[in-house]
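[Automated response] Your request has been received and processed.

Submitted sequence:
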Amino acid sequence: MGRRESLMTDTAATPRTTTPPPGWSNAPPHDGISSTEPPPGERDMNDPGWSNEPVVPIVPPTLTALQPATAIIGDPSFTLQVTGTDFVDGAVIVFAGLDEPTTFVSATEVTTGIDMSVWLGPDAVPVAVRNPDGGVSPSLSFTFTASAR
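Generated structure:
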């Protein structure tokens, strides 16, 4: 028997003595086809994208109130206070679909200035908060009303 045949024979005859990583099993591949891919839902620890770090779910902020919640067309510009939960430093108020310069006050409050000169007529616009991790709150409605003058 040549060296190559000997190695192949010895390797095939040698029982497996290594312990698989946690979560892996010695069971045949899930699809019955020999594969070097880990089963679905498992990652190869040698993959450069593998991490020991736990996956942290994105917790979107929630809104509880807008102060004020209405403004009259023609009123001076004002500061909008948005209260809620789970705001983080870097959160942005999204007013009528546009990111507004936002001041982070606390995990329950953020503020922005609203320029009233750009609003010409009655309207209701959505207000939401987006955290830097991409979590976005459900929106509340801000209402612009016509002047009673």
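Summary generated for your ticket: The first strand starts at residue 62 and ends at 67. The beta strands are 62-67, 70-72, 78-85, 92-95, 98-100, 103-106, 109-114, 123-130, 140-145.
If you did not submit this request, please reply to this message.
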